[in-house]
Amino acid sequence: MLLKTRKRLLASAITSMLIATGVSAEPNKGGDIIVTYQNDVATLDPAIGYDWQNWSMIKSLFDGLMDYDPGTTDLRTDLAESYLLSEDGKTYTFKLRKGVTFHNGREMTAEDVKYSLERTANPDTKSPGAGFFSPIVGYDAVAAGETTELAGVTVIDDYTVAIELTAPNATFLHVMGLNFASVVPKEAVEEYGEDFGKHPVGTGAYELADWTLGQKLTFEKNDDYFRDGVPYVDTITFEIGQEPLVALQRLERDEVDIAGDGIPPAKFLQFKNDPRFQDLMVTGNQLHTGYLTLNVTMPPLDDLKVRQAINMAINKDRIVRIINGRATPANQPLPPAMPGYDEDYEGFSFDPEAARSLLAEAGYPDGFETELFVMNTDPQPRIAQAMQQDLANIGITANIRSLAQANVIAAGGVKDQAPMIWSGGMAWIADFPDPSNFWGPILGCDGAVPGGWNWAWYCNEELDALGAKADAMADPDRQEERAELWGSVFTQAMDDAPWVPIFNEQRVTVHSKRMGGDDALYVDPVHVPVNYDYIWVK
């Protein structure tokens, strides 16, 4: 540790001299940064962690077989040096990089890959991501507690692992890029047991140097990281318990480098209009759409014309203004950052007069009364009120039920309880950049179950079948065709109008003037919210 510290001090001194003489190259190496968050970190165990705050932290500590090019949704190999897909599309054979070491100094091998996948799939681990591994042969037996071994995962030699699937699955490489597929050392998991999440050991660009619960975490650069040249920053200190407004005030005083919770709505216009921060604010798209669900099983919303009328009644531009323009109006379920998004699709136009005519055709010339469920945290109730006014304009009386997030989610999971739900603050953010993950849980038949997230209770078996056909296109040469097929699934679903897609909200953050790196790294769509491995200090 002393040697590492002295080496870093020397590197920092050299960097400082280069900057002073005006010959520094970009990006610079070295430096220490501070990132603030309001909430504490629950765990850094990649098999367990599943929230936006710890997601990118875990990605900086661990690696999987696959990952994404920084700031993009483009897949690339990670711990895998290469892979081959069998002719039947069911077996992936991964060649691992040699010489990759865990933070404890031991070399990572194919046995670690097998152990890590089986650990996440094991119900004793209680991983919220275990189901992602269901395509692997033998998963059902592991999930049932009949065995701890995934029959489809075979160690061929120290640097080769084969994974057999029950059927061709084009999403599988994305699954191997999820945190849940991160490779961990068995000995460290066994040493710390349930506390492994507080003592994480991975192969990542950073390693955990210190964790004072409820106060701060410190990540230290992994000098032995297998990717040459990264990370750039020496240490990252995550300060916990910082109110977002206080964090922004500290950032203004150059005491904080990244406000992890972003810019609260109340401060957005101030920062947007302040010349000092215009070059420091970063806006990026998310794998997310805000939508109003229309329960297709509850009268009168079971009538297509009624749902079409509601789609034409909502003024989306006005709703975008409520959140200070931090979104773009949506016309389809898929967000623009997702493969398969149809740029030519027009959707339903805002046309209250046509909406009133449709209601009359459906037998409701005087409208009707219904309920609109919404999370009770600002600005969601204000958005619901805007929808309420738009619906009143065509004769629909929508009584607002403003409840805690958990209660709204619970109501959506009961088939005949919530006619309409505004998804704000709860909308699905895709686990990986593939349209299949945006269909099954929230629009597919599998999600239209008690406790599910398909709050429209929409089930179109023909579109489910088209989605399954698309997912069977595992051939890399067919991915453009596959994306187009998936896109058609979503636009055809809009023919049934189970949703009113409202907007695609953008993530806005701000960093200090000394931070460098592409803007996309600060709103990374996969390393949410920040790709810490590639940012640097000027």
UniProtKB/TrEMBL annotation:
Keywords: Peptide transport, Protein transport, Signal, Transport
UniProt organism field: Marinobacter oulmenensis
Record CDD domains: PBP2_NikA_DppA_OppA_like
Gene Ontology molecular function: peptide transmembrane transporter activity
Annotated GO biological process: peptide transport; protein transport
Signal peptide positions (record): 1-25
Descriptive protein name: Peptide/nickel transport system substrate-binding protein
InterPro entries in UniProt: Peptide/Ni-bd, SBP_5, SBP_5_dom
Lineage of origin: Bacteria, Pseudomonadati, Pseudomonadota, Gammaproteobacteria, Pseudomonadales
